[in-house]
Amino acid sequence: MKAFKKKTEEPSVTFPYHSLLKDERMDTLREPRTFLAINVNGIRAALKKGLIPFLLEQNPDVICMSETKVGALAYQSFIQTEGKSISNEELPEIIPGYRHIFACSSARQGYASTAIFVKRGIRVIDFASSIGDSLVDTEGRYIRIAFSSFDLIHVYVPNSGRGAKKKPSFKPSFLSERLEYERLIRNHINELQQRGRQVIYCGDLNVAHTPRDIHNPKGNENSPGYTEEERIAMTQLLQGCGLVDTFRRLHPGLVKYSWFSNFGNSRENLLGWRIDYFLVSNQLFERVVESDIIDEKRYFSDHTPITMTLKND
């Protein structure tokens, strides 16, 4: 749950940030059904806390990570240091049995950035880590993978900033940029759906949508991630793009949180926010079997993993 940073462009690197393979063969590979997403707040730190054994226990088809903090200039050294070589022809694996794609920040090293890991045997049609706008692209906040019947979009939405919350007129310092980001993403999702694609939109969306999604709604009315403008933008995303908040639709009265402050024993006292989501197109929701927030006692970051399962089409 980090704020926007002023962008200082740095030279990009030319080697690929992925080991994914596009495969058009219908008879050899399958579509993913199980998904896990987590903001790792630095993938190197999360790996040291035992993240990979946990992920292998969960065994999802697709793993989405927000805030990896692997910048464009650090990707190659990270892969060589943390990966395990499979063959001379392929990039090393970070998670055994999974191919990967990283969106790496070029605006600021060691900041933001995202990754998706896809289990071997899953059919990938296409993928991208850019929508063509610097507000989204330069900090590595977006990845899209096209599977047979839907597109998976994984994002790390920027926090709108921090400031003196006690002032009644206070607005987060980067609220206008945050709302522009929301507009760009809404347009992008609508364009995909107009082309007949169903969409899964997931990740750290950095907004608690309703009072059920935050432990102290009254006291956080002007807090970044719970301003009226951001909650309205979330409603516009759901309604304007025809998306379903899978956790809330399946568990309308359940209170669970996916992010906890590092201060005041927030996690132990269950004083959190639900800001990580799996949203899906209305038609695709018919295939959603479960959507949950994992009650995991092992802490890999200040966020808790979220999961979603689809039934076969």
Automatic annotation (TrEMBL):
Probably binds two magnesium or manganese ions per subunit. The active site is at residues 156, 204, 303. The record marks 276 as: Important for catalytic activity. It holds the Pfam family Exo_endo_phos. The record marks 303 as: Interaction with DNA substrate. Its cofactor is Mg(2+); Mn(2+). Keywords: DNA damage, DNA repair, Endonuclease, Exonuclease, Hydrolase, Magnesium, Manganese, Metal-binding, Nuclease. Residues 38-303 form the Endonuclease/exonuclease/phosphatase domain. Mg(2+) binds at residues 39, 67, 204, 206, 302-303. GO terms for cellular component: nucleus. CDD domains: Ape1-like_AP-endo. The record marks 206 as: Transition state stabilizer. Coiled coil: none annotated. One of its GO terms (biological process) is base-excision repair. GO terms for molecular function: DNA-(apurinic or apyrimidinic site) endonuclease activity; double-stranded DNA 3'-5' DNA exonuclease activity; metal ion binding; phosphoric diester hydrolase activity. Belongs to the DNA repair enzymes AP/ExoA family. PANTHER family: AP ENDONUCLEASE, DNA-(APURINIC OR APYRIMIDINIC SITE) ENDONUCLEASE. This is Endonuclease/Exonuclease/phosphatase. It comes from Giardia muris.
